[in-house]
Fold:
Amino acid sequence: MNMIASLRGTVLSVGLNSAVIECGGVGYAILATPQTLAEMHKGQERHIFTQMVVREDAMVLYGFADTASRDIFNTLQSVSGLGPKLALAALSVYTPQDLATRISTSDVKGLQKIPGVGKRMAERMVVDLKDKVNLYAAAPSATNDTVSSAASPATSLVTESVVEALTGLGFTAAQADKAVATVIANQPDASTSEALRAALKVLGK
Structure:
């Protein structure tokens, strides 16, 4: 049973992988995707759907912008060996619709874009979830992202922060460096959250 299904309150702080929302005088720390966190700002009131994951050594609250993201987060964890960290990483790379489409169309190669998902896990996801994700599946949208090369030295702080966030999600340092360099070359004035979202799009291609 999910004891805390949603939160409505004031955003106290927002980081690259977490936020704190105050509800009734209590600050709740949530882990969420960069996309969800990018829409949250300190001092604003937000309504977030949540899922509590209880482990022997910790209780962690995950936050989602919509119920579809929360539902597929839970569905993903029905796969043996796929825990909440990997489920959140999947939603950091793909929307619920894109993720469901890749599963339902047996896009094993596409699923391996998720950090921590190898060929065996991708195949397991297809076998175990193909009949469970039809509700979310949609036609994949085309992207016109252009790959470029060098990063701007003036954005070193943004670069370091985004690379750290990406490696925290499970991408290798080499993957993170390359993706961030691509983004900064195209968007030299991007904020940390904008750069992180754009880097995830590059890594999801």
